[in-house]
Amino acid sequence: MKSKLLLLSFILVVLGCNKKKDENIPTYSKGNLTVLTDESFKSVTQALTEGYMINYPDTHIKVETKKEDLGFLDLLDNKAKLIVMSRSLSKEEIKAYEEKVDLKYMPARFAADAVVFVVPKSSPKTKITLDEIKSGLNSEDKNFIFDGTNSSNLNFVAEKLQKQPRDLKFSIISGNQNIIEQLDKYPNKIGVIGLNTFSRPYDKTAEKLRDMVKILPVENNGKEYYPDSNGLREMKYPFTRVLYFLTNEGNFSIANGFIRYSCTQLGQMIVEKEGLQPYNLYKREVQMR
């Protein structure tokens, strides 16, 4: 009898230790995560993390802003588990990712955003042509203002124009919001910002920023294209960009759990509330009785 009691005690101790050990293992519903995102699309990233933490109260997700090129390097060096990207990776970068991370390159696309061109409300300018953008970014006048080097906005515009960012000529004001707030000091300049900076329909700060500038439609081949829902959904606006997640997490833990959530209907509803275009479209069914 005594040996049976000792065996039972031993089993209970082992089970208790295993339970404590299991409690410390991160899962999709429990644990900590830091997401690196460019400042241009921090708002939608933050909104998605808040939604995830409401659904999974034992998770804590922190959003940090970092230029996407630097965020990608952190991902390769395992200094970050999850990043948000907008530009396409080069063949060399994809190869580096698959070799260092040991995962197949599978971008998790979740939203259509845009790079937009803005001027003060008082400006007489009402549109901008694709040719103006190309010639302006080759001019020593530096009439286009970006939020910095290595920024997602600069990288994406360079990619669309099939140029290297270092080959473009531009001015810098750090931060998308700062560009909007200071643009009236430079009446001949054009701000280049991320749409998500002020795309939230009912946010007070976003409303204030929208009232300070006007978005210029981009004209190409005689047609004007706007970064509205139609322009983004059909990718007709020339500077529409697709946001996606990239992770080095090989199992289904908190990073992959967050990615899945962001791409489901609930996550896509959050994207829509941010004023962006959901990448995954869901049918809405209304039953009439």
From TrEMBL:
Annotated InterPro entries? PBP_domain (IPR024370), Phosphate_ABC_transporter (IPR050811)
Q: Name one Pfam family in it.
A: PBP_like_2
Q: Where is the PBP domain?
A: 30-262
| Keyword Nucleus found | no
Give yes or no: UniProt keyword Signal: yes
Q: Which UniProt keywords apply?
A: Signal
Protein name as annotated: Phosphate ABC transporter substrate-binding protein
Native species of this protein? Chryseobacterium daecheongense
